[in-house]
Amino acid sequence: MSAAPPRGPDAPWSDPDCPVARTLDLVGDRWSLLVIRDAMDGAASFTEFQRRTGIARNILTDRLRKLLAHGLLAQRTAPSGRRQEYVLTDAGRALFPVILTLRQWGERHAFAPGEAHSVLVDRHGDPVPDFTPVGTDGTPLSTDTTRVQKTRQA
Asked: Would the pTM count as exceeding 0.70?
């Protein structure tokens, strides 16, 4: 089991036993997820994140630092060699299903029928099919077919 990401003494976990709460502590604000979304779409520079999101410089600086500190983004030298750029780590890329699920929920519930919106497409240009989590037997999962089970420390 990997260790939890570092947290400052002034920032305790909001609910130390809940994976959802811990995740929201790390990326639960609007700007962090939009930065992750844009990194997944190829944004790499501070300027590009700011242009795409419209976020204030001080807030973007804070979110980038937080995402770096928690291992969701890493910095590397840009191909030009003149500046640093931001790239997703494995942990950052692992948020893809979260972004996909939020996107698909938004397509169904955040737009009026017929209202224009962006569409996520695969490498062939086809719209990405609806994401549906399934159980070990292949049947779709829902709130009716799952439950939270508390674990005990050994």
From this structure: yes
